Amino acid sequence: MAVVAPFRGLTYNFQQIEDLSHLVAPPYDVISEEEQEAYYRADPRNVIRLILGRKKTGDTDWDNVYTRAADCFERWQSDMTLVRADSPALYVTAMTYDPGDGIPERTRWGIIVLVRIEDEGTGVILPHERTFSAHKDDRMSLYRACNAQLSQIFGLYEDPENMALNACSNGLATPPQIDFTLKDGTRHRLWILGGDDLFRRVSDALRDSTIFIADGHHRYETSRNYRDMMRARYGRRPLNRAYEFVMMYLSNMNDEGLTILPSHRLIKDVQGFEAGPFLKRASQWFDIVEVALGDGSVSGQSDHIKKRLEQEGRHRTAFGFYAHKDDRWHLFSLKPGARSRMGDDLHPSLKKLDVLVLSRLLFQKGLGFSKEDLDDEEIFQYQSSTMTALSEVESGRFKMVFLLNPTRMEHVKEVAGNSLVMPRKSTYFFPKVLTGLVFNKIDPNEIVQLP
């Protein structure tokens, strides 16, 4: 049973700040060094100072990115840059954006609430991707320094009748407390809604839901580790202490505004790579079509390549392959029966995933990478834009790229429902949930109000 609750969120002070567009940022793990600097320059109150502070030469245990984030967090509360709500509330967001590639503009709705942290195996909150200890250690250091959840976990739930969001309809008929548009044209609105009857209706609508983690796997596991640390210090009773909950952004799987983008694989280098022998090995498992580029750049033909890949992917697993300085690209289509060559150690639901077909057959068997290599960011990088991925190879920054279709939602549900996990970067839910709309401050002695 999913236990959700309203909370006294901490937000930027709307009385002092009218335009939040210069203060927010995407999740820390998708921000490049160049983007980090841009957010620093955007405004001295930008949330980047909390979630991804600058490292300095000579950082110590007493002065580092985490202690500076905590100092900044406390200072912003003291000078009223950040203010906490007087009473519990739900935070409903609407994100209107352009998915690109000629797809009409969409709006994705989300409800920001507290959700009780679950132990593994309960089947209530399900991850679907692997996590890595370095990322969790980093987020735990920030958690402990600030005693707050600074970013929402992005969760998905099934609600065909849209009961949870419909319960908020009266409040959503009023103007939002936050309304701004980012430079990329994405419009963000947020309503702060209260009322015991509303809380009960939303809680009842979500009570029997299974929540699938779309984004924020590391942060969710960190919240559980933080909870366990606080339990050891303050106890397990009552069950609704503040540290028993995590702040989540929940979106309906049936929301027409939900978009999954592909995670194309860019490869820095492959030792001893020769196209001819590789294509011959790959032909054991794939039908391969060679497509001449003709005039112009390969990146300039990205729309055509993307559409060709999408069409083929409707019938079977398919990949696009392009190598630096080649005058053609290749369409790989999985042969009937080739999945059996992936190995006997994989669950049938995992064998359906394009990313694992790619990893097992082309990366490991075809190119000779080890499983450890596949997690090496010095070798592999990821990109959701087909044009950008092709441009990176065209420029010579990367040796080659393998283009994928997006992972299907039914595959995400099936894998998570079987208590399995996908390889990293198997999905890219777009757009990312903004950081900076609302924070959750954790007082170990505070009791969360349950509907």
Description:
The model has no long low-confidence stretch (mean pLDDT 92). The chain has 2 domains: 4-259 and 431-441, no CATH class; 263-405, no CATH class. A hairpin with a 4-residue loop joins strand 16 (318-323) and strand 17. Strands 1, 4, 5, 6, 8, 9, 10, 11 and 12 form a 9-stranded mixed beta sheet that branches. The protein has a 6-stranded antiparallel beta sheet with strand order 15-17-16-19-14-18, with helices on both faces. Strands 2-3 form a two-stranded antiparallel sheet. The chain is an alpha+beta fold. The protein is built from 14 helices and 21 strands. It has helices spanning 33-42, 48-51, 65-78, 133-146, 163-166, 169-172, 196-206, 217-234, 275-282, 302-313, 348-351, 354-366, 386-394, 409-417, and strands at residues 4-5, 10-12, 82-84, 90-97, 106-116, 125-126, 148-149, 153-157, 178-181, 187-193, 211-215, 245-252, 259-261, 264-267, 286-292, 318-323, 328-334, 380-383, 400-403, 428-430, 440-441.
